[in-house]
Amino acid sequence: MALIEFTTNNKVVADPSTVFAVSNDVERPIICKSPERLKLLLGAIAPCKSVHYVSKGDWSMHDLVMQLVNKYNPATIYMTTYALRETPLRQLVMAQQKGLIASLNMLIDYRAKVRTPEVYQLAAMNANKIAMVAIHAKVCVIQTAAISISIVTSSNWTTNPKIEAGVVTMDKAIGDFHIDWINKTMDNANIFRADQ
């Protein structure tokens, strides 16, 4: 399946076997089949645009984030995940040591301490802020003085050969929304109460 481009009049230019429905011209679906497709995804990210993607194990969440952090830095990272493994975490730590990540804020599932205690300890030693809750959401916001990129995805911070899907949005308001609920949850606020 090819990269799908949308013109300003909402006409789709695509492989004839591909069908997508969109409501406006800011959505750009991409099938990511290899690291080359990851490059296409990175090239499609632009201010006030959303890019929807599907991938199958050719690259992982940390590959996408590291590419973005290499381009946009120093970055503050806000991330949530159900599962975290050593290789992705070590890439974050190395980016911190190189000065590419200025602040790392992690909201991870509370069972990480039991499932992967060594990985949790490494995260606790290196994150600027870390909290544990019952969470299945996978969100990452990469923020610099100039940009805010939000990734909402099915992908955990692992290496996974399964089909994953997600949306990458370069929009400050979207980034602020995710940062707000992540920070409040990290500070033990009940964001789901009616009076919040």
UniProtKB/TrEMBL annotation:
What is this protein's name? Answer: Phospholipase D-like domain-containing protein
Organism of derivation: Ferruginibacter yonginensis
